[in-house]
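Onboarding guide, step 5: your first structure request.
Type a short instruction followed by the sequence, for example:

Predict the 3D structure of this protein.
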Amino acid sequence: MTLKYLLDENVDKVYNRQFLQRNPNLMMWVVGDPGAPPRGTLDPEILSWCEEYNFILVTNNRTSMPGHLAEHIAQGRNIPGIFILNEKLTIGQTISELSLIAQASFNDEYQNKIINLPLL
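The system replies with structure tokens like these:
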């Protein structure tokens, strides 16, 4: 299985550019891109979009995202997962981590979970 990522609009777009440069066959979209939720979309709506289109959300939002995820699950809904960026990792380290995860993960491995990067 290959994961698909959606970058929160507050994550620097350099992550998207470098990820796709290294992994042209993988998918990473950014909030505001054509086909993705528009900029300014509220977090609960982003989670619904990720659920519908099977994207893992990549964000730096450690504060409100756990509450939004809990509400989403309480409504009987699911999300493929949320990855929280680690400010101590370089962009290159983060890209390497996301690349490895995308190519080596099992179906639904991160469902309804918030994962802090790096995995190990």
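Each response can be followed by summary notes, for example: The chain has one domain: 4-116.
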